Amino acid sequence: MKNLVDILDLSVEEIDRLIEVAADMVASPEKYSEICRGKILATLFFEPSTRTRLSFTSAMMSLGGSVLGFEQAGSTSVTKGETVADTIRMVAAYSDIISMRHPYEGAPIVASTVSRVPIINAGDGGHFHPTQTLTDLFSIKNKLGRLNNLTVGLCGDLKYGRTVHSLISAMARYEGVRFVLISPAELALPDYIKEEFLRGHDFVECESLEEAIPELDILYMTRIQGERFADRDEYERLKDSYILTRDKLGTAKETLSVMHPLPRVNEIDVDVDDDPRAHYFDQAEGGRYIRMALILMLLDSGRGIDSRLHGEPDKTLSCSNPHCITMTERGIKKRFIGDRCAYCDQKAKKREV
Ligand code: NCD
Questions:
Q1: Which of 129, 163, 201, 288 is least enclosed, having the fewest CB within 10 Å?
Q2: Known active-site residue 340
Q3: How far is the CA of 326 from the centre of ligand 1 (A)?
Q4: CATH architecture of 310-353
Q5: 351 is known as an active-site residue
Q6: What are 227-235's contacts with CB under 8 Å, separation 24+?
Q7: Which residue among 2, 39, 43, 52 is the active-site one?
Q8: Residue 80 catalytic?
Q9: Where in the chain is the domain with CATH 2.30.30?
Q10: Which atom of ligand 1 approaches the CA of 161 most closely?
Q11: Which residue among the candidates 2, 39, 53, 101 is catalytic per the annotation?
């Protein structure tokens, strides 16, 4: 594997291996502290971030490497109209590995087709967030001891929540995992995620957190993603749809793991933080080690442009997603997998002639 654009770029065995290496890094950090000496990680954040960017920086520093990059597109040549492809070509000449976050869905795919160095998707719009999923899986393994035979409740913004999309696609590969999708109807899991990853899997959709709680092994709370709403009034109406309180945990299993990719707004009351089932801060801490393991794995995989272009060109189709990278990137080769855009996975529409 050369790039991590989608969590499914990693096999289950590779994920097991990353978790094993990350656990060893926690136990014996000194063994790894010089292993990336002379290597440079570029962190390109075209969208705000705290944990993801800092944990990548901390991860590379803990491996003895160096870091360069930016945390706002506003200070870069993007404001002059530079494409993602051109920015990446340049940065690949100045670094050994790139982690990038971009508001447009599919941007890391564009990057991976022109970069000589590995590309890590650190979040693309409301699409995917594979390194958060690695962090989540590491936490689940540490807290519950297994990744199979679990009832996983995902609560909040399942429509725009990219961490949810990647976590579902990863966990659907394990035996005996059942999903309880808790959201208002307006923020339900998109059809493309259900069709691609949940077909034939055990899942239910519901609106009541209280009703779902007793059966869960994991409760994965999420922030309502205000920045992705086209309609501000709708956001105001939905933003406090779910608030987890100590009271609501009263009917939950003793062994429940309460998770959250963070940042939290109102969806978990601060009173819950002292509950032994509140695992979200430990979860974030693990992000440093699993990213260390990932950086090592990708640097070992060698250089070279990933020529594997997904999908086929089809002049009769166009993507229907206004947040797809194909809407803004000049010179892009539009491609489709069946009737889906190969960049953002959303349904394509017939082009009007
Ligand atoms: C998440 C993200 O950026 O998608 N944060 C993170 O990376 N830990 C979740 C969020 O912003 O709500």
A1: 201
A2: no
A3: 23
A4: Roll (2.30)
A5: no
A6: 228/125, 228/126, 228/160, 228/323, 229/160, 234/186
A7: 52
A8: yes
A9: 310-353
A10: 4
A11: 101
Q: Which atom of ligand 1 is nearest to the CA of 163?
A: 4
Taking the centre of ligand 1 as the mean of its atom positions, its distance from the CA of residue 113, in whole angstroms, is 25
Q: Residue 144's Cα: distance from chain center in Å?
A: 21
Determine if ligand 1 sits within 6 Å of the CB of residue 101: no
CATH code for the domain defined by 7-129+285-300? 3.40.50.1370
Two structure tokens written together for 199:
């077909």
Residue 333 confidence class, pLDDT cut points 50, 70, 90: confident
Decide if pLDDT at 304 tops 80: no
Query: What are the pLDDT digits (tens) for 43-102?
Result: 999 998 889 999 999 999 999 999 999 998 877 777 778 999 999 999 999 999 999 999
Per-residue pLDDT reduced to its tens digit, 103-162: 999 999 999 999 999 999 999 999 999 999 999 999 999 999 999 999 999 999 999 999
* 123 in contact with ligand 1, CB cutoff 6 A: yes
Q: Is 99 in the pocket of ligand 1 (CB under 6 A)?
A: no
pLDDT of residue 78: 77
| 51 is a catalytic site residue | yes
What is 130-280's CATH number, 3.40.50.1370, 3.40.50.300, 3.10.129.10, 1.10.287.110? Answer: 3.40.50.1370
Residues forming CATH 3.40.50.1370 domain(s) in the chain: 7-129+285-300, 130-280
pLDDT digits over 2-41, tens only? Answer: 899 999 999 999 999 999 999 999 999 999 999 999 999 9
Task: Note if 102 is an active site residue.
Answer: no
Helix (H) or strand (E) holding 98: strand 97-102
Residue 255: count of CB within 10 angstroms of its CB:
12
Residue 281 has pLDDT above 60, yes or no: yes
Burial 214-235 (b: 16+ CB within 10 A, else e): eebbbbbbbbbbeebbeeeeeb
Give residue 9's Cα distance to chain centre: 13
pLDDT at 308: 56
Determine if ligand 1 sits within 6 Å of the CB of residue 129: yes
Mean of all residue pLDDT scores within the chain: 94
Which ligand 1 atom is the nearest neighbour of the CA of 157?
12
The answer to whether the CB of 335 falls within 8 A of the CB of 309 is: yes
Find the helix or strand (DSSP H, E) in which 193 lies: helix 191-193
